[in-house]
Amino acid sequence: MAAVKKPSFEPQSAACPTCKGSGEVSVAVRVGRKRQAVGQQTGLCLTCLGSGEATTST
Ligand SMILES: [Zn+2]
């Protein structure tokens, strides 16, 4: 049994705390006066602008 090499997916830079490095955030979609949540929509993370990395200003 060969040892399965785990893909090292460690981020080099700090992952965005908002999207956890995925670059996308799920937002609840609400419609109607009752503001009933009908589902979730995936949107671009505005914190990192989809890069998934925390923006570090040098
Ligand atoms: Zn982000």
Could you outline the blueprint of secondary structure elements for this entry?
Blueprint: E1 24-31, E2 36-44
Antiparallel strand pairs: 1-2
Zinc ion (ZN) binds next to loops.
What does this structure look like?
The protein has 58 residues and is mainly beta. The protein has one domain (13-58). It has strands spanning 24-31, 36-44. The chain has a two-stranded antiparallel sheet with strand order 1-2. It is elongated. The chain starts with 23 loop residues before the first strand and ends in a 14-residue tail after the last strand. Zinc ion is lined by residues 16, 18-19, 23, 45, 47-48, 52.
Name the average pLDDT. Answer: 82
State the total count of DSSP E strands. Answer: 2
Runs in which pLDDT lies below 50 for 5 or more consecutive residues are: none
**What small molecules accompany the polymer chains?**
zinc ion
Q: Determine the N-to-C terminus distance.
A: 47 Å
β-strand percent reads: 25-35%
Q: Largest beta sheet: what is the strand line-up?
A: 1-2
Determine the number of helices (DSSP H or I, runs of at least 4 residues): 0
Number of domains: 1
What does the overall shape look like? elongated
Question: Could you give the order of the helices and strands?
Answer: EE
SS-based structural class? mainly beta
What would you report as the Rg, rounded to the nearest angstrom? 17 Å
* Biggest sheet record: 2 strands, antiparallel
The percentage helix is under 10%
